[in-house]
Amino acid sequence: MSSKYRLYGCLAIALALALTGWTSWRAVNTPLTPYALRFPASFGGRFTIPADNPTTEEGVYLGRLLFYDPLLSHTGTISCATCHRQERAFTDGRPKSIGVNGQPTSRNAMSLTNLLWVRQLFWDGRAGSLEEQAIMPIHHAGEMGMKPGEAARRIQHVPLYTQQFKQVFGTDSLTDTLIGKAIAQFERTLISASSRYDRYLAGKAALTEAESRGMALFMQAPDPARGIRGGNCAHCHGGPKLYQELFHNNGLDRHITDTGREAVTGMSLDRGRFRVPTLRNIALTGPYMHDGRFTTLDQVIDHYSDHVQAGPNLSRELTARQAGGLRLTAADKADLKAFLLTFTDSTFIRNPAFTRPATLSVR
Amino acid sequence: MKPFLLCTLCLLCLATRLNAQTLTISGEVARPVTLSAEDIKALPHQEVTGKDRDGKELHFSGVPVIELLKKAGVTTGGELRGENLAKYAVVKAIDGYEVVFALPEFDPAFASQVIILANRVDGAPLPAGTGPFRIVVPNEKRPARWVREVRSIDIRFAK
């Protein structure tokens, strides 16, 4: 080799070294881009983002990769998205979810929508933050079935992830905690605020007559003494986000089999109470209730109208004025359903920012 | 020895949790307290009259909230000045419903009505779904802060 070529060779090596050095330096030192969470002012600012896990573009993207990656399950076949499918507003269409062992889990998969505002996660409110929640399904024997630390070890040497974790969290050692943090960042971005009902609230769309009558029933408490029928749904499912963070028993059973909130608080007054779920995208998230017992919205409305069971802790909102149910007419039921259908947000279920990232296929 | 201790501890915790129709007062207090229905029954009671949502006048009996706050060493009376006026109470129900009161609302040095934690209505214990404890703000036009099934009072600073 002539000295000239040797010189070029040296230069090339130096350049390569400089480049790798620069890339890894960049990975650690480039400031991350803050993620702009956008939502209507009416959704309010009652949420906390942990100071040690700010939402960034890069972190959200990493979380999205992880959300769709079956590597995080024992069998390598189940990802979060298996049970939380975007086209169903992040539910799975089953009464009870099926995880790594092919058996149904104990409850119905919840919709992942507007979680930024939820402070007590799960049907029984047992998780206090998205960071804490996100690693629970990974470690759950019936969901993704991983031992503590196993998920981090599994992806530790996947180049895509080593690079991304370095960039987002500035470290080479992956942990389950960091996996949880990244997924939590992605979950905070799952904001749904473009249903027809949202546009109606913003003065940009009108409701049909049936929908308007349905809305009146939804908002109004019944008053049989004055001949007023109502659903009083808004007491629990009201507000622009279509839920209040409350725990109630809505009269599904006289004899409780799933103790719900009681298992978390130990209080008998909590037996059979569950967190009020959001009604956003309700047309897409069936089957309904914590055990997925109802397949259609008609069954749900029939329940509230005619089959409310006086079990322990049945909410007084459903009994105080009228025992046994709301006694709605067939026309009322149709109107109420028409109104529930205005909660569907088709931009949310098609938002390209929430889909499975193409990079996963070339991992 | 160790497992035995652990077991006893667990049992103790369980026992206190199961026996749980209690009221907790915590936060910016000198001493957090947990009061049982019996503890509360033993305190001096006061009667108030107020209109519930249906407009019906009801006679409640219960303990002035200020007396409960004093038990926890909340700043009241002469101490309720300066930065202590930036404190508020979050009253929380079993179902998670929360409402806010400013401390002076409870304090007879400021307020002309007495807000009570009621445990009886028209001579009987509060019914299921309302009791064991309910806040009653006698003169308030809408009873939305008459929290049913009260579980805790948390004192905080506006920050």
TrEMBL record, chain A:
Q: What does the record's cofactor remark say about binding?
A: Binds 2 heme groups.
Q: What is its main location?
A: periplasm
Positions with a binding annotation for heme c 2: 233, 236-237
Its PTM note reads: Binds 2 heme groups per subunit.
Cytochrome c domain spans which residues?
A: 209-344
Annotated GO molecular function terms are: cytochrome-c peroxidase activity; electron transfer activity; heme binding; metal ion binding
Q: Where in the cell is it found?
A: Periplasm
Reading the lineage from the top rank, the first entry is Bacteria
Q: Might you report a single GO cellular component term?
A: periplasmic space
Associated pathway: One-carbon metabolism; methylamine degradation
Q: Which cofactor does it need?
A: heme
Q: Which keywords appear in this protein's UniProt record, sorted alphabetically?
A: Electron transport, Heme, Iron, Metal-binding, Oxidoreductase, Periplasm, Peroxidase, Signal, Transport
Q: Does the keyword Electron transport apply?
A: yes
Does the keyword field hold Transport? yes
Q: Which Pfam families match?
A: CCP_MauG
The residues the record assigns to binding heme c 1 are: 80, 83-84
Record's function text? Involved in methylamine metabolism. Essential for the maturation of the beta subunit of MADH, presumably via a step in the biosynthesis of tryptophan tryptophylquinone (TTQ), the cofactor of MADH.
Q: What is this protein called?
A: Methylamine utilization protein MauG
UniProtKB/TrEMBL annotation, chain B:
Sorted alphabetically, which keywords does the UniProt record give?
Answer: Signal
**Secretion signal, residue range per the UniProt entry:** 1-20
InterPro entries assigned: OxRdtase_Mopterin-bd_dom, OxRdtase_Mopterin-bd_sf
The superkingdom of the source organism is Bacteria
The record's section on Gene3D superfamilies has:
Oxidoreductase, molybdopterin-binding domain
Report domain Oxidoreductase molybdopterin-binding positions. 59-154
Q: Under what name is this protein listed?
A: Molybdopterin-binding protein
Source species of the chain: Arsenicibacter rosenii
**Origin organism lineage:** Bacteria, Pseudomonadati, Bacteroidota, Cytophagia, Cytophagales
